[in-house]
């Protein structure tokens, strides 16, 4: 078996996954004066109706894609691979800071780096996605096209990956490749070779995908099996540290 590489690099030195923040919704309070209970109740109902209307307007103005994952909808994308013995990158050096990844914890070695240009990148560390191979033509950020209509092992089979790393658009140490795949021309994952080859032979380097956000313990209808030719073990440049604990969140 020969493992080949699509050399894409994430940022392993700086944490690019920012946490999300939330703010409390405004509240309407009845003035503590001499109004009758009926007027106070009417005032509260009016404020509630006004807030509901304002919330509806705000949600309507949000980009559709920002709400897509609320309903578990699929979206098209693209995936490259990294972390095989042949490419020099290591899945244990992800920017999310989870350290050495245990094959038997969380999603194991089925992980991915998310492009920092994806619309849902913020707060992506630790989130999980269901991914299927999409038999289609794809292109890179330089306009080159690739026929991937016949490379999927099974378009109906899925792999669940957890985000442990980022793929920054601006990465001077690997500028050409990162700009090629991770600069926002298409929704993009850089998947571990271990996960990628469950969907297609690793020699293809890049494939079309469809993906959706799921709970990390979600069981897909049809889980992609270990490929018949076996799997490429991840790059093991980092040995298991003494006292090590896999820090990935898990339900």
What does this structure look like?
By secondary structure, this protein is α+β, with helices and mostly antiparallel strands. It folds into two domains: 27-61; 66-214, Beta Barrel (Barwin-like endoglucanases), CATH 2.40.40.10. The protein is built from four helices and eight strands, in the order H-H-E-E-E-E-E-E-H-E-H-E. The chain has helices at 37-61, 64-67, 175-181, 193-199, and strands at 75-82, 111-115, 128-134, 136-139, 145-148, 158-167, 188-192, 206-214. It is globular, with a radius of gyration of 22 Å. The two termini are 36 Å apart. The model is unreliable at 1-5 and 10-70 (pLDDT under 50). It comes from Pleodorina starrii.
Number of distinct helices: 4
Beginning-to-end CA distance, first to last residue: 36 Å
Average pLDDT, all residues: 78
What's the helical proportion of residues?
Answer: 10-25%
Extract low-pLDDT stretches: 1-5, 10-70
Q: Indicate the structural class.
A: alpha+beta
What's the number of domains?
2
User: What top-tier CATH class of the largest domain fits best?
Assistant: Mainly Beta
Task: Let me know the CATH homologous superfamily of the largest domain.
Answer: RlpA-like domain
**Beta-strand segment tally:** 8
CATH architecture of the largest domain: Beta Barrel
Largest sheet at a glance? 6 strands, mixed, barrel
CATH topology of the largest domain: Barwin-like endoglucanases
Organism: Pleodorina starrii
Pfam family, one: DPBB_1
GO cellular component, one term: extracellular region
Protein name: Atexp4,atexpa4,athexp alpha 1.6,expa4
């Amino acid at each position: 078996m020969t493992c080949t590489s699509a050399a894409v690099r994430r940022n392993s030195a700086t944490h690019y996954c920012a946490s999300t923040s939330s703010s409390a919704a405004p509240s309407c309070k009845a003035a503590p004066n001499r109004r009758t209970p009926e007027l106070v109740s009417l005032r509260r109902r009016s404020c509630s109706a006004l807030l509901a209307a304002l919330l509806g307007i705000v949600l309507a103005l949000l980009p559709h894609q920002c709400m897509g994952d609320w309903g578990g909808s699929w979206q098209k994308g693209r995936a490259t691979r990294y972390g095989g013995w042949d490419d020099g990158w290591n899945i244990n050096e992800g920017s999310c800071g989870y350290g050495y990844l245990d094959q038997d914890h969380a999603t194991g070695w089925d992980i991915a780096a998310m492009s920092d240009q994806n619309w849902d990148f913020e707060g992506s560390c630790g989130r999980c996605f269901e991914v299927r191979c999409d038999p289609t033509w794809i292109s890179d950020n330089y306009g080159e096209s690739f026929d991937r209509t016949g490379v999927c092992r099974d378009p109906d089979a899925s792999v669940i990956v957890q985000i442990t790393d980022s793929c920054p658009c601006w990465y001077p140490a690997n500028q050409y490749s990162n700009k090629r795949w991770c600069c926002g021309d298409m929704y993009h994952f850089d998947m571990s070779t271990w996960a990628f080859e469950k969907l297609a032979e690793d020699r293809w380097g890049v494939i079309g995908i469809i993906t959706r956000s799921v709970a990390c313990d979600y069981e897909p209808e049809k889980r992609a099996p270990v490929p018949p030719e076996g799997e490429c073990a991840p790059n093991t440049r980092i040995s298991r540290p003494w006292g090590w604990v896999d820090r990935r969140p898990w339900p």
